[in-house]
Amino acid sequence: MNSCTRKRVLITGGLGFIGANLARRLVDLDAQVTLVDSLIPEYGGNLFNITDLKDRVRVNISDVRDEYGMRYLVQGQDYLFNLAGQTSHMDSMQEPYTDLEINARAQLSILEACRKYNPDIKIVFASTRQIYGKPDYLPVNEQHLLRPTDVNGINKMAGEWYHILYNNVYGIRACALRLTNTYGPRMRVKDARQTFLGIWIRLLVEGKPFEVWGGEQLRDFTYVDDAVEAFLLAATREEANGQVFNLGGCEVVNLQELADLLVEANGGGSYQMRAFPSDRKRIDIGDYYADDHHICAELGWAPQVNLQEGLARTLAYYRKHLEQYL
Ligand SMILES: NC(=O)c1ccc[n+]([C@@H]2O[C@H](COP(=O)([O-])OP(=O)(O)OC[C@H]3O[C@@H](n4cnc5c(N)ncnc54)[C@H](O)[C@@H]3O)[C@@H](O)[C@H]2O)c1
């Protein structure tokens, strides 16, 4: 029996891509799940993500920047999966204060709410590989210098370290997962705000060509079910407390290879190569792939779904439900 069974669980960003997939898994484990989400239209939240779960979860449409709301919501919870975030790198450059408020300040106030009203809660924070910036070496392990290339990376880094600090100073059990590109059913595909892979999938399913920028960049990808497993392990294992863990994927590919795999999984389609736009180049991190030995050794995590299988499952989902995501 997984130790989330019958526990009270709060997921911030719970109507988003990863949060909603995590909610499904927790509901199957008989957890009592509350989802908090602001449903800001530019972000990945979507009520359709939980349409078949809606009688089995509590949904609270509110903003994690609302200190009073969060003060109430954290009370009585056994676990907090803290996933609410502004995820667009470009948006963080255009609206840096919004990113600061959500990804840094609100994180601090959530932790303060836990310290004052529920110090026994266990928290798992969704961090990102973006905080490493341009890698000095590959694969990137957790000892790599943190040197973000955009405002989002700086604020997520602060958000992550507030969690570790509250673990270390106040004993509020917390840890962080540094996610790499995560993909799968329920991701935002309307545009490229969450990931370029989203818009590729949308255009492919619509029978239109998509654009591959550069093409040579190396990346790793975690299928969302594997990411969900990591969140559950991080929550339920005491040895995770105070630690940060990279997540990786089954394989490393360049973007053109990824495009070929996607077209193959779709049974057809086309793409065009394009030079990397200059406004994105300035904040780009170049090649990245994770060394995820730490979580594998410490928590026994291992990615199970390879790209071929994961892309096929994702395309099958959007062939059926694309209109709900436009
Ligand atoms: N998907 C990835 O590849 C990836 C990679 C690295 C890190 N992450 C992190 O994982 C977390 C979840 O990402 P996701 O991919 O599911 O994105 P997502 O956009 O689908 O989910 C984030 C959710 O947070 C909600 N949200 C945003 N601001 C909020 C606020 N102020 N109050 C309440 N809710 C708010 C959004 O409405 C959305 O539903 C994020 O913190 C993100 O930084 C994701």
Task: Describe what this molecule looks like in 3D.
The protein is an alpha/beta fold. Helix content is 39%, strand content 17%. The protein has eleven helices and twelve strands. Strands 3-2-1-4-5-6-10 form a seven-stranded parallel β-sheet, with helices on both faces. A three-stranded mixed β-sheet has the order 7-9-11. Helix 1 links the parallel strand 1 and strand 2. The longest helix is centred in the N-terminal third of the chain and has 22 residues, at 96-117. The protein is globular. The termini are far apart. The model has no long low-confidence stretch (mean pLDDT 96). The structure holds nicotinamide-adenine-dinucleotide. Nicotinamide-adenine-dinucleotide binds next to helix 1, strand 2, strand 5 and strand 7.
Blueprint of the fold:
Elements: E1 8-12, H1 17-28, E2 32-37, E3 57-61, H2 67-73, E4 79-82, H3 89-94, H4 96-117, E5 122-128, H5 151-170, E6 174-179, E7 181-183, H6 196-205, E8 210-213, E9 218-223, H7 224-236, E10 244-246, E11 252-254, H8 255-266, E12 271-274, H9 278-281, H10 293-299, H11 307-321
Parallel strand pairs: 1-2, 1-4, 2-3, 4-5, 5-6, 6-10, 7-9, 8-12
Antiparallel strand pairs: 9-11
The structure holds nicotinamide-adenine-dinucleotide.
